[in-house]
Amino acid sequence: MTPLTIVVLRRFSGYALIxxxxxxxVPRVLGFFGxxxxxxAERIAxxxxxxxxxxxxxxxxxxPALEAAMAALAEARLAAQRGERMACQRxxxxxxxxxxxxxxxxxxxxxxxxxxxxxxxxxxxxxxNGLEDLYGKVAAGQPRSEVVRLLGLLKSSRQxxxxxxxxxxxxxxxxxxxxxxxxxxxxxxxRAxxxxxRPR
Length: 200
Known about the structure:
Blueprint: H1 3-32, H2 40-56, H3 64-82, H4 85-139, H5 144-169, H6 173-196
Helix pairs in contact: 2-3, 2-4, 3-4, 4-5, 4-6, 5-6
């Protein structure tokens, strides 16, 4: 190669490197200053969608992350009204981050609630099976009126358990957790009455 060719290639590679850096850096800088990219209204709408998604996953106003996301959105709206693009961009960025955090927390809480509800349903199913076994042992040899009474106890216990099973199948885990104590008390009372009716 001639010295002139080497000089030209060096300059060409230097310009290419500068151009590559500009292609990477300029859009980021322009986006940072809000000169390109989503408008303020679009950024706020994205934050609102993230908050709505967190609520659909089970987050409520007691969630600190969701509360922070709502506050950041309010700040972004004020900045948009004043025409402050950078302030709006920073606030919507915080809103998105906190809304995503609220989504993750809500999903984790929902899974924990589901596991607790599943354990309760299994416990009640076991208790009902035990009641049916006990009824089979106790009812034999009893007068008809007593058999009818004991069968009524068993039926009401089954209905109470079925209500929880249905709530679990429909995904209403909070109802399972809320009603579990009352159902367990009813099953325990039925078991006590069945045990008391056992022939001596």
